[in-house]
Design a protein that fits this description.
Low-confidence stretches: 1-18
Number of domains: 1
Oligomer: single chain
CATH superfamily: NAD(P)-binding Rossmann-like Domain
CATH topology: Rossmann fold
Order of helices and strands: EEEHEHEHEHEHEHHE
Helix content: 25-40%
Distance between the termini: 32 Å
Shape: globular
Strand order of the largest sheet: 5-4-3-6-7-8-9
Length: 267
């Protein structure tokens, strides 16, 4: 089951649907699990076909089956900051589905924990390469391959760590702040044919974020006014909205998805 909602061309359980991606094609990076896979599921449920990427081919193959098989999804394994992988993924998307309307730059890394001043320069450069320069490169390729001529929409997955100080994951926060700023610049440059927005989630229950909540979920959720951590679907629905024509007059924005936790200054 791809979604808890029954999606057809016109109705979601009797309610008119405006968010439909029938006939459109999306590329979602970092989508073998977690938030990326949740986004891919949502897009497929709403009619899109997708190309998903991640480093390891085995989880990607499982994700393709989860998404409905090769008629609905293809996968390309590789490192998100590798130019050859980026080009291959875009080329294979066009070859398989004939177009590329939607891009979700979801891949992000945080290989270090500690003060920014103590961050190894090599590690810092890698974080920026994947989290900032990667989305720039993916957007450039999507623009050249299809969107520049035909239009499209891009959503970058940022983080509330980029909105304020984020002790212990400061370099990650720096990269996500830069990604939100990059979103603004690209929106200004690529309009009117291409819209570029971002989402900034708080802690979402995925393997990537386990260190922030595993074994202490109730404590971790206590500062949130909604009294729970996020799940991938919380982000997926917002991303689908920003990619859709329902958001046709929205570009250059970062939508905070945080259960209200930043109202009190928390992470």
């Amino acid at each position: 089951m791809l979604s808890k909602r029954l999606v057809t061309d016109e109705f979601v359980i009797g309610v008119a649907v405006t968010v439909s991606f029938k006939g459109q094609v999306a590329l979602v990076t970092g989508a073998s699990r977690g938030i990326g896979l949740g986004i891919a599921r949502e897009l497929v449920a709403r009619g899109a076909r997708v190309c998903i990427t991640a480093r390891n081919p085995e989880p990607l193959a499982e994700a393709v089956q989860d998404l409905g098989g090769p008629e609905q999804a293809i996968a390309v394994a590789g490192k998100a900051d590798d130019p050859a992988h980026q080009q291959e993924a875009v080329d294979r998307t066009i070859a398989a589905f004939g177009r590329l309307d939607l891009l979700v730059n979801n891949t992000g890394i945080n290989p270090v924990f500690g003060p920014v001043l103590d961050t190894d320069p090599v590690a810092a450069a890698k974080i920026l390469a994947v989290n900032v320069l990667g989305p720039l490169a993916w957007t450039r390729l999507a623009h050249r391959a299809w969107m520049g001529e035909h239009g499209g929409a891009v959503v970058n997955v940022s983080s509330i760590a980029g909105l304020r100080t984020s002790p212990g994951i400061g370099m990650y926060g720096v990269s996500k702040a830069a990604l939100s700023r990059l979103t603004m610049e690209l929106a200004g440059e690529l309009g009117p044919r291409i819209r570029v927005n971002a989402v900034a989630p708080a802690v979402v229950k995925t393997k990537f974020a386990e260190a922030l909540y595993l074994g202490r979920e109730e404590e971790a959720a206590a500062p949130y006014p909604l009294k729970r951590l996020g799940v991938p679907q919380d982000v997926a629905g917002a991303v689908a909205f920003l990619l859709s024509e329902d958001a046709a007059w929205i570009t250059g924005q970062t939508l905070v998805i945080d259960g209200g936790v930043t109202l009190g200054g928390g992470l």
